[in-house]
Amino acid sequence: MKGMGNLQKMLKQAQDMQENMQHQLGELRVEGSSGGGMVVVTLDGTKNLMAIKLDPEVVDKDDVEMLQDLITAAFNDAGAKVDEEVSQKLGAMGAGLKIPGLF
Q1: 92 partner at 20 to 30 Å CA-CA among 49, 67, 85, 86?
Q2: How far is CA 88 from CA 6, 31, 32, 85, 101, in A?
Q3: CATH classification for the domain delimited by 29-96, as one of 3.30.365.10, 3.40.50.300, 3.40.50.10090, 3.30.1310.10
């Protein structure tokens, strides 16, 4: 039954790491931009939109489609950066979890 104690310890460690990761993702802020920085969006680590900054020059009532495209591009840029940050954090956290045969 010694193995059960180790298994419970590993499960507890994994649960603690998951809670820590969720907290870190909630605190993470990543910016993405488009149009040479005329549109900037900020996402958290779970890709919730936190803020949008628009340069007044990009707001043109006669070209709303361009603004929509710039916002979409900035959001996608930030989303890719979130993915990269999360991947790095998961890799670092996984190295701390010593599961035989996996790490």
Answers
A1: 49
A2: 27, 17, 18, 5, 21
A3: 3.30.1310.10
